[in-house]
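Milestone M4 deliverable, item 7.
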Amino acid sequence: MKKLSHLEAILWSVALPGFAQLLTGSYLKGILFMFLEFLINLNGHFNKAIMLSFLGKTVEASNIINYDWLMFYPCLYMFAMWDAYKSSFVNPPKHIYLPFAFSAYFVTIGLMYSPIIYVHNKLIGPVFLPILSLIPGIFIGNVIRRMLLKRDKH
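Output delivered:
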């Protein structure tokens, strides 16, 4: 089994959930993550929403999204990233899952609120608000992780 660096593991997972697993020889897991990503992406109409969002048509993007399907996307994405990142360590650090888990939670919340959050009379949309929601997810997950590590030392 090939080991990826921590950065490689994260970046291949950002490119497509399952890529890092395929590169390390975890073929079943990698194929499963890729299959689930395609299934959710296609049924949620996510690629079209990404395209529309980057073209400034966030209201259209919000209207074509199938939120019932897309609600699964943040958890799948973050779980695949965590799995790849964790696998890049010989001995994974304690509580390393927390930033990923909180990111999945906050991105899901961002997705739920994306159809109603406007800034300067412009809808942020189902792509950009969830991406922005990563910031508090990573921050809070790391704060809680540090608190637990500090507690574990004592």
